[in-house]
Automatic annotation (TrEMBL):
This is Thiamine biosynthesis protein ThiS. It holds the Pfam family ThiS. It comes from the Bacteria. CDD domains: Ubl_ThiS.
Length: 65
């Protein structure tokens, strides 16, 4: 299926947000996720089903001052 991750189109086989994170190489990283504009907390990623055309945002926290 095709989804958009951080404004870039990807063809993926993942069915859930958790599987997508693994497929894209983010497993183990401290990241925040949103799907179609709604925040998805870590415990919900495994139950969050992807659909064709979904818009996913993956962001890493920034440090500094």
């Amino acid at each position: 299926m095709q989804i958009v991750v951080n404004d870039e189109v990807h063809e993926v086989s993942a069915k859930t947000l958790a599987a997508l994170i693994d497929e894209l190489g983010y497993s183990g990283a401290r990241i925040a996720t949103a799907m179609d504009g709604s925040f998805v907390p870590v415990p919900s990623r495994g139950n969050t089903l992807l659909r064709d055309g979904a818009r996913i945002e993956i962001v890493a926290p920034m440090q500094g001052g």
